[in-house]
């Protein structure tokens, strides 16, 4: 490989959860910071070890300030499928790239990381001693070294068939860690105000990263609920705004969701959630509003729309309509007394796409969850819009027969009025109407599973 490629190679150590979400997150963040995920770069599917070509160390550091899917990144100095191959690779790495980190005034330590195997301390020391050919001139400091180097060994993905020797061995200089601690520090369990469908903290940050949310962006959630997605966007410096049809949720009223708590307290609301994390300055407002009704002036307002629409399982899908059966002497009430009607999923998502196409800035992103009945799902069932380009489509399993897909789209052309109904002429529209019965199919599957479990118990 040419030296110029070698100089830009980095090893990314990925977390082993939400596997489908990892690649879109890394691609989105590289794009956000001026890098590009080229097809020539190497990824290893479910493996935690990815080799990437990144233009600069600054971009690598910025990537790790955002990602919750990656644990650490290393400047890759050597790689092989055996110790001998690794040592040969290290001997070919340019010495001038090593010297700034190995000179006599520096301190360092070497760590051993293994995936799918545990080594004894003696085995670790043996591997460190084998690297004595490297031109280390500094002093070892195990507590506060200036530079940390790692040997990373990959023993595959099968815990029941662990090989004697690793499949791959890497050596690199540690650059930075990812933001995995955000999953715990923003955990819903510790949150002041929660609801039945409050989004998991890790997924909230993944959605913000897929949406390329950055400082001073304006991010909108039309199905805001208790504001979990606003919190993730605000953490990255975006100003956040939302709407929801549920008056009680928006105002923090009614019955509490937490166990052993009957009613919500006077300070349980979305603003209090952002205040809890020191993010209140990014809170614009949240309004009671029906997502099916146009309530905005024409224009482009948002850098990202990030949302989790209701599926009709734990939260109902509702819209409002004008009541129209009144006696003549009360006809004036027609425009003032709304009634609640069912909101078909197909209509909800097509309204969402139209809204995004009309209100996103060019290059802005729409990130939303799409519930699917897996036995019938095909990619053709994902709603589309002529102004929006599909960026990624990731699955999260909900049950043996249902899942939800995280859809990320980017606005690529200016919205025209004629675009509003163009999707109805597409072959995509008819298959997606099948999702209107998602609730029935969901509970049908639950009923069948319960019956199957009862039958097996009786036998």
TrEMBL record:
InterPro entries linked to this entry: DNA_methylase_N6_adenine_CS (IPR002052), RlmKL-like_Mtase (IPR000241), SAM-dependent_MTases_sf (IPR029063), TRMT11 (IPR016691), TRMT11_N (IPR059073)
Gene Ontology MF: a single term: tRNA binding
Chief location: cytoplasm
One GO CC annotation: tRNA methyltransferase complex
Domain of life: Eukaryota
Catalytic activity as recorded in UniProt: guanosine(10) in tRNA + S-adenosyl-L-methionine = N(2)-methylguanosine(10) in tRNA + S-adenosyl-L-homocysteine + H(+)
GO biological process: methylation; tRNA processing
Keyword vocabulary terms for this entry: Cytoplasm, Methyltransferase, RNA-binding, S-adenosyl-L-methionine, Transferase, tRNA processing, tRNA-binding
Localization per Swiss-Prot or TrEMBL: Cytoplasm
Known EC number: 2.1.1.214
UniProt domain tRNA (guanine(10)-N(2))-methyltransferase TRMT11 N-terminal: residue ranges: 9-180
Residue intervals of the Ribosomal RNA large subunit methyltransferase K/L-like methyltransferase domain: 190-321
Enzyme class of the recorded protein, top EC level: transferase
One matching Pfam family: UPF0020
Assembly with partners or alone: Part of the heterodimeric TRMT11-TRM112 methyltransferase complex; this complex forms an active tRNA methyltransferase, where TRMT112 acts as an activator of the catalytic subunit TRMT11.
Function: Catalytic subunit of the TRMT11-TRM112 methyltransferase complex, that specifically mediates the S-adenosyl-L-methionine-dependent N(2)-methylation of guanosine nucleotide at position 10 (m2G10) in tRNAs. This is one of the major tRNA (guanine-N(2))-methyltransferases.
Family statement drawn from the similarity comment of this UniProt entry: Belongs to the class I-like SAM-binding methyltransferase superfamily. TRM11 methyltransferase family.
Protein name: tRNA (guanine(10)-N(2))-methyltransferase TRMT11
């Amino acid at each position: 490989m040419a030296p110029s490629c070698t100089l830009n190679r980095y090893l990314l150590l990925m977390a082993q959860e939400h596997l489908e979400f990892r690649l879109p997150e890394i691609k989105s963040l590289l794009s956000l910071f001026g890098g590009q995920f080229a097809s020539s770069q190497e990824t290893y599917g479910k493996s935690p070890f990815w080799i990437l070509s990144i233009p600069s160390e600054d971009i690598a550091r910025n990537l790790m300030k955002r990602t919750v899917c990656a644990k650490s990144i290393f400047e890759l100095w050597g790689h092989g499928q055996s110790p001998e191959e690794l040592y040969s690779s290290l001997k070919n790495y340019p010495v001038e790239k090593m010297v700034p980190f190995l000179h006599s005034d520096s301190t360092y330590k070497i760590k051993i990381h293994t995936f799918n195997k545990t080594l004894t301390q003696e085995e670790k020391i043996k591997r460190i001693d084998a690297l004595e050919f490297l031109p280390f001139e500094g002093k070892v400091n195990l507590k506060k070294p200036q530079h940390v180097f790692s040997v990373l060994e990959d023993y595959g993905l099968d815990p029941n068939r662990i090989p004697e020797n690793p499949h791959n061995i890497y050596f690199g200089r540690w650059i930075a860690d990812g933001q995995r601690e955000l999953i715990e520090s923003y955990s819903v369990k510790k949150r002041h105000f929660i609801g039945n469908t409050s989004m998991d903290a890790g997924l909230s940050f993944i959605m913000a990263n897929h949406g390329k949310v950055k400082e001073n962006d304006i991010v909108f959630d039309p199905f805001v609920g208790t504001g979990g997605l606003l919190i993730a966007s605000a953490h990255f410096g975006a100003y956040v705004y939302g709407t929801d049809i549920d008056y009680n949720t928006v105002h923090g009223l009614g019955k509490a969701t937490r166990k052993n708590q009957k009613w919500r307290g006077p300070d349980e609301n979305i603003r209090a959630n952002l205040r809890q994390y020191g993010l209140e300055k990014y809170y614009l407002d949240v309004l009671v509003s029906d997502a099916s009704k146009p309530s905005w002036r024409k224009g482009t307002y948002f850098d990202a729309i990030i949302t989790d629409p209701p599926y009709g399982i734990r939260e109902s899908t509702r819209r409002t309509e004008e009541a129209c059966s009144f006696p003549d002497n009360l006809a004036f009430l027609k425009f003032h007394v709304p009634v609640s009607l069912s909101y078909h999923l197909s209509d909800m998502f097509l309204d969402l796409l139209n809204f995004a196409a009309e209100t996103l800035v060019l290059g802005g992103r729409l990130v939303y969850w799409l519930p699917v009945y897996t036995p019938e799902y095909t990619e053709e069932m994902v709603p589309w819009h002529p102004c929006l380009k599909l960026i990624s489509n990731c699955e999260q399993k909900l049950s043996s027969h249902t899942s939800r897909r995280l859809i990320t789209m980017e606005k690529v052309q200016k919205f025209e009025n004629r675009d509003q109904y163009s999707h109805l002429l597409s072959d995509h529209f008819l298959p997606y109407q099948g999702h209107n019965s998602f609730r029935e199919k969901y509970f049908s599957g639950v009923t069948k599973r319960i019956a199957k479990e009862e039958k097996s118990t009786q036998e």
